[in-house]
Specification:
- The protein is an alpha+beta fold.
- The chain has a domain at 72-261 and 297-348: Cytochrome P450 (Cytochrome p450, Orthogonal Bundle), CATH 1.10.630.
- It has helices spanning 17-24, 45-53, 70-73, 90-100, 106-125, 137-149, 157-168, 172-183, 191-198, 205-236, 242-249, 299-316, and strands spanning 8-11, 28-32, 38-42, 57-58, 130-132, 259-261, 265-267, 270-272, 277-280, 321-322, 330-333, 340-342, 346-348.
- The chain has a 5-stranded mixed sheet with strand order 2-3-9-6-4, covered by helices on one side.
- A hairpin with a 5-residue loop joins strand 2 and strand 3.
- The longest helix is centred in the middle third of the chain and has 32 residues, at 205-236.
- The radius of gyration is 20 Å and the shape is globular.
- The model has no long low-confidence stretch (mean pLDDT 94).
- Belongs to the cytochrome P450 family.
- One of its GO terms (molecular function) is monooxygenase activity.
- This is Cytochrome P450.
């Protein structure tokens, strides 16, 4: 049986055989889920778009298999525990998306492009000698950009970096609280204050801060993994466009977040019971940022940040180079929805 959940280390140019095997397995492939039982993985593009828009297939972790350990499965709190854009469904999700999506439209992000590049240049200019950009920059840069847009004082970036690292270390509760505390420092004039104004007036402050936490963490975790590959391609190879090739070959998330059937359904000739877990092979299908009602609201920002780093490296650091051969770089394939991330990225910027 195909196992897409095992963590491995591969070379930069070494293909991952798991995804080819999945696509050869048919439009829906059954695998063993880490938390137990089967998971149905959709690999067909047309079927994927149907699944991502089907109201019978929901995001709320409350519909996960009853015997799943939420921590082992890597689930978010349920929509009842912590309402969020990634766990709500139906009209409630639509209303929240209506409040959040205008914060990160393509027009607004284009207006921020010069500022995004300025922040990238400032951060890169602070490094000297041989620097591993995976050790700090890929985490710090997307946080610096979003906190700047949220009108959160720059001195809080370190706290946000620490909060994200807590999440990666498995301290979900501590990370959420740390990033909510950072969100609480937002001043007027940024998208954090705008989100507060766009929410219903009776929305509890705790809930608003959790939505802001979601923006902060989501903006970091997806861009972080892709940044290393974009930088490596910018400095190490002339094959293709670094951003487009990264989103195609090393997407931030190879699979959709967990989805669950709210009722028994048939999918490509297979019968799925209620609470059946489903993943969609969005990376292999060119649906990097999803599709349907849960299309990533931060897609424009993520692409602007990736393009901004490429632009700054070519324009402001013309002597920048990899400190090791491109082919010797290694990627950690996290398995499951975690994607892959360069193990190290040693670079000489000047």
């Amino acid at each position: 049986m195909i196992d897409p959940f095992t963590s491995t280390v591969r070379g930069m140019t070494e293909p991952n055989p798991v995804f080819a095997a999945l696509r050869e397995g048919g439009p829906v492939v059954v695998a063993d889920a880490p938390a137990g039982g089967p998971v149905w993985i959709v690999t067909d593009e047309d079927l994927a778009k149907e699944v991502l828009s089907d109201p019978r297939i929901v995001k709320d972790p409350a519909m996960a298999p009853l015997d799943w350990d939420p921590f082992k499965a890597g689930l978010e709190p349920t929509a009842a525990q912590r309402p969020s854009l990634t766990t709500m469904d139906g009209p409630a999700h639509t209303a929240l998306r209506r409040a959040q999506a205008p914060l990160l439209t393509g027009k607004r992000i284009r207006e921020q492009q010069d500022r995004i590049e300025e922040l990238a240049r400032d951060l890169l200019s602070s490094y000297s000698g041989v620097v591993d950009l995976m050790a700090d920059f890929t985490t710090r840069y997307p946080l610096t950009v979003l906190l700047d847009m949220m009108a959160i004082p720059r001195e809080n970036v370190d706290r946000a970096v620490d909060g994200c690292r807590q999440m990666f270390a498995g301290d979900q509760f501590g990370a959420i609280q740390a990033l909510m505390d950072v969100a609480a420092t937002a001043r007027d004039g940024g998208i954090a204050a705008e989100l507060r104004d766009r929410m219903p007036p009776d929305t509890p402050e705790e809930e608003v801060r959790y939505h802001l936490f979601g923006l902060i963490f989501a903006s970091q975790v997806t861009t972080d993994t892709a940044l290393g590959f974009v930088i490596a391609r910018t400095l190490g190879t002339s094959d293709g466009d670094p951003v487009e090739e990264t989103l195609r070959q090393n997407p931030p998330a190879p699979f959709s977040l967990w989805r669950f059937t709210a009722e028994p359904i048939d999918l490509a000739g297979m019968h799925l019971p209620e609470r059946a877990p489903i993943l969609v092979d969005i990376g292999g299908l060119g649906l990097t940022f999803g599709a349907g009602p849960h299309f990533c609201v931060g897609a424009q920002l993520a692409q602007a940040e990736l393009r901004g780093v490429e632009t700054v490296l070519r324009r402001d650091f013309p002597s920048a180079r990899l400190a090791v051969p491109y082919e010797e770089l290694q990627q950690i394939v996290l398995g499951g929805i975690g994607g892959s991330r360069l193990k190290e990225l040693p670079v000489v910027l000047r």
